[in-house]
Give the backbone structure.
Amino acid sequence: MGRLLLIWRLALRDLRHRPVQAVLLLLAITAATSTLTLGLALNGVTSGPYLRTAAATNGPDVAASVLPSGPNGTQAPDLAALAPLASAAGVTAASGPFPVAFATLRAHGHAVPVQAQGRDLAPAAVDQPLVTAGTWVQAGGVVLERTFAQALGVTVGGTVTLDSRPFRVVGLAVTAAVPEYPGVCYYMTCNSPTGQAEESGMGLVWLTAASARGLATSASPLSYVLNLRLRDPATAAAFAAAHGPAGLTGPQSASGLGLLTRQEVQYADNDLVSVAQQVLAPGSWIAIALAVASVAVLAGGRMAEQTRRVGRLKAAGGSPSLIAAILLAEHLVIAMVAAAAGLGIGWLVAPALSSGGTGLIGSPGVPALAPGAVGLVVAVALGVTLAATLVPVVRAARTSTVRALADSARPPRRRVLLVAVSAWLPAPLLIGARLVARRQRRAVLTAASTAITVMGVVAVMAAHRATDIATARFNWFAGLPDPVFGRVSQVMAVLTVVLVALSAVNVIITGWATAVDARQPSALTRALGGTRGQVSAGLSLAQVLPALPGAVAGLPLGVLLFAAANGTGQVLVPPASWLAVLLLGTLAAVAALTFIPSLLTARTAVAPLLRAETT
Amino acid sequence: MTLLCARGLRKTYGRGDALVRAVDEVSLDVEAGETVAIMGPSGCGKSTLLHLLGGLDHPDAGTVVLAGRHVDQLGERGLARMRRDAVGFVFQAFHLMDELTAVENVELPALLAGRSPRAARRRAVALLSQTGLADRANFLPSALSGGQRQRVAVARALVNDPVIVLADEPTGNLDSAATLEVLRLFDDLHQGGQTLVIVTHDSRIAATADRLITMRDGAFIDETRLDGGTAGSLARLAGLDG
């Protein structure tokens, strides 16, 4: 007990003694754990709202529909294909068939294809959309699906036209029979071959059956939808397999019949959110990799500063294991705090990214984090810290007492070629290159963390590019901005901020560690005639030089990361101008962020540093 | 000709009760080619004085004129140029770059001064030969003895042909044999007309100077012109001959 108390007390004292380093360490790990929590929290976040909506609207377990058939889709649908389904085994209730007309809705300058479903004024036994504003359908009035209305910017009391016929918007409603806008997909499969929700871009409106029939033409006859409730909702897929057409479904099947199960709808609703999760998942691993680099440099720097303290503890009788425990405890305390902070931040931010859609009752709200997810976040925080600190901790604990008390610096490395080549360079580059040669592991970490950041940002750029292309395509056929793309853009913005912030912390930490390590050689260089400007430029260049290959390597890696993460293997290279700006911007940012510690080091008086070395 | 002229130099550290007058109203003239030794107990301000003379530190008061230039009025850039072109430093702790070989250490100030790498290397090799270390040119400092390291440091101090060499306890970290190596080197420099200011605890080095100044509590308390004068032999005076 006494030993634990001693470890705790000494660890806490040291944390208080170096608060800035502790805060930087906390920030680095928190950024990684927040991103990971966000990714985990978004997984399955919409299942709650879907189930609430299904319960409130008597959602169908299976929605069966028939489309017009014939070469041009001009033959009236085969209603007989629906008839046996209402009385099939396992069906306990049904509503419909309801007529559905395809029309073009115009409002606020948008022209959007819609499915206009004709409904009775009386509530249906299965799939009675829940009116969230205004009233249910009435003659001359139309009810819009809520997410669709929001994307259009239409509210109750407004006016829209359906195939040039004016209708008053009398209400907004939600349903669990189809995925929310833009995933409305009665007649086509809700899932593309890649497993992602197919965004039809089609809106859903309800109006009276008479109005729906009035919209039908000989070129575009009515379709019909039949909603079915099953005794056991879990058997929906089996029911669809047993009663649906073999092979192709919907308009491509011979009968024009298509069956949509509640599980498909729920999956599609979830999938619209999970696009964001797909971005966050690789993003959180990138953030974790950056956090490892930050913590490694920071821990290494802290250990280098604690050499004399280690010597004193050893001289006072501390065993290597006790010293290792004290040093590890400091970092593990920070890791635990960072895990808690990351869990809190991720948990609070997740609803903002998942509640973009309003087609379901209630926002997903604050998601429940499974104990497994919490455990994973804590394990990652501890793992990152252990991976980064174990080597320097063990090295510090095993240092001889005399050597530690003398605080002799770790001997620098020598790189013959770099020293020889640097002789031909201007003084700042000479100083910078030789500082790089002194601490190669740190240079490798700088290069790696820069590569990881640039890789992440390039992947985000590629995703933006893909989103831009998809948005343009979506706008072209839907005439409306896609709320899913908006949500993905939000996630990418969050991810970019996290990556850039982590990288900035990394650069500051590495720059600071290099500056501290280079105090004596910097002072000596000035004593030998180097100017402050040359020394501070050299210190900055010591970060920029390894960052350059890292940034260059990050460009193709980012393209590959996007190809691997998007699930389709699609290779999309962001415009060259974006990449050039990223490359130059990264190097400029590294130089700017290391400028202050470099300047501070170069401004330190030379004499005390040279004197300190002799004491 | 007076090469170095310091007047009323003052440097203090701390404040209130903790105020330390490291250098207190010190004035000093050093002639070209002269060797001046400054002795005194630890903490008397010898090293601080040397740093003020060489532009490594700023005085709180007083003036320093080196080769006609007011060191105390120079900005950081001017001081750097002066340290590069006019002053050579030799430190007790050698302060060699551990990752550079002897010849790379020696050529470093020349490279910082903008000399071509070839010229810098030629000069460094020549100086290492002069200091008897031609066969150790490609050795890292860790592979050299203390005396050899200090000789490398002296060669480095000379690489830009400084008008004055300021040596701070150059034998302070050396054993007797190594001390003799360094003494011989300073003797050679003295014979060659190099101006030297040496801060030392070692009475043998002090005895070889043209002038010996004793310092205590930041001030000069005694000054003695020694027999040898500028024409004397450091080695003979130090008993190194034979």
In short: Chain B touches chain A at residues 47-48, 51, 56-57, 76-77, 80-81, 83-85, 89, 91-93, 95, 97-100, 104, 107-109, 111-114, 117, 120-121, 140, 142, 156, 160 (CB under 8 Å). Chain B has eight helices and ten strands. The radius of gyration of chain B is 17 Å. The helical segments of chain B are 46-53, 76-85, 102-112, 117-130, 146-158, 176-191, 203-207, 234-237.
